[in-house]
Design brief:
Function: Condenses 4-methyl-5-(beta-hydroxyethyl)thiazole monophosphate (THZ-P) and 2-methyl-4-amino-5-hydroxymethyl pyrimidine pyrophosphate (HMP-PP) to form thiamine monophosphate (TMP).
CATH class of the largest domain: Alpha Beta
Largest sheet: 8 strands, parallel, barrel
EC number: 2.5.1.3
Structural class: alpha/beta
GO molecular function, one term: thiamine-phosphate diphosphorylase activity
CATH superfamily of the largest domain: Aldolase class I
Cofactor: Mg(2+)
Keywords: Magnesium, Metal-binding, Thiamine biosynthesis, Transferase
């Protein structure tokens, strides 16, 4: 019995590692994306640790009745997307097999492979999901709005400056007014080809067909937000430390906020995470992340030097006399 289980584990460890290598090569040479390539490499290495000598010794290729099995759809690939989809599915299926059969004799394998499977889902969303996710990945500047009588005019001017990502954040206005503002902002952003996310309120995001939602640590689970909005929508999560970051990644967040970098009135009473957290994110976060909290044109160079490639701002744009100019200045700093 154990010999048969080890053969199953061996075959699926090979299958998952091979599939990850295929995805890694595209991330490295096709997309020139070091963070995604590195994530694939890390997952391959984690599986390699599980692929022990005892498991390898169970291999018996000559007597494997499945070596001759094939299907016409496996013989051709119509596009790079179909190639990626096939191999991502292959990895996910293999990890599920490892998760279940590993429980019979190697309990730690089940937990590791479950975590890896969720990470592959996240990888899949970045590689294959809609234009929304591609726009998210290309966005280096993220405007989080605050209450203002001139909200639409400010956002309009910022969009003319090249802004591509906006979050509607308003925690005090009546829902009826918020609904109207969200509708107006959604149309405005889409007219410019930009994304609109809604802070906290999944119901508002759904009602106005926004591009997604941003959740705080105390908000609903990411999986529930995706179930309500659909996997084609974006779900982000605020994080303030490495543990919260890793939890958000494991839950399937499409991006995270990293901060607050500096003390900010937007988060009263919240101690800043500092540049150390930025440095940690730069080394360990495989998904898009935005440095947030007190970032302005005076200190952004420190954020960039610490490894920040994307920033989210509130006051610097919302209180600017010329939002479009400010946006262009930020984009210039971010390259």
């Amino acid at each position: 019995m154990q010999q048969a289980i080890y053969r199953i584990l061996d075959a699926n460890l090979d299958r998952a590692r091979e599939g990850l290598r295929i995805i890694e090569e595209w991330c490295r040479f096709g997309l020139n994306n070091p963070s995604l390539a590195e994530e694939c490499k890390k997952m391959r290495q984690e599986l390699a640790v599980l692929h022990t000598w005892e498991i390898r010794q169970a291999r018996d290729t000559p007597s494997d009745v499945g070596t001759e099995l094939s299907h016409p759809r496996e013989e051709t690939r119509d596009s790079i997307e179909s190639l990626l989809q096939a191999n991502l599915a292959r990895i996910q299926e293999a990890l599920r097999v490892l998760e279940e059969y590993g429980k019979l004799c190697l309990p730690e394998m089940g937990g590791v492979c479950k975590s890896l499977r969720y990470r592959v889902y996240t990888l899949e969303s970045h590689l294959l999901n809609s234009d929304r996710h591609k726009k998210l990945y290309r966005s280096s500047l993220y405007l989080v709005t605050s209450s203002s009588e001139n909200l639409l005019a400010i956002v309009d001017d910022a969009l003319r400056g090249g802004l591509t990502l906006v979050q509607y954040r308003d925690k005090s206005t009546d829902d009826n007014i918020r609904l109207v503002k969200a509708q107006q902002l959604c149309k405005l952003c889409h007219d410019y080809g930009a994304l609109l996310l809604v802070n906290d309120r999944v119901d508002l995001a759904l009602a106005v067909d926004a591009d997604g939602v941003h959740l705080g640590q105390q908000d609903i689970p990411i999986a529930l937000a995706k179930e309500i909005l659909g996997n084609h929508k974006i779900v982000g999560r605020s994080t303030t430390n490495p543990d919260e970051m890793q939890n958000a990644i494991a839950e399937g967040a499409d991006y995270i906020g990293v901060g607050p970098v500096y003390k900010t009135p937007t988060k009263p009473g919240k101690e800043p995470a500092g540049l150390e957290y930025i440095e940690y994110a730069a080394q360990n976060c495989p998904i898009p992340w935005f440095a947030i909290g007190g970032v302005n044109l005076t200190n952004i160079n420190y954020v960039v030097a610490a490894g920040g490639q994307r920033v989210a701002v509130v006051r610097s744009i919302m209180e600017s006399e010329q939002p479009s100019v400010t946006v262009r200045q930020f984009l210039g700093c971010l390259g």
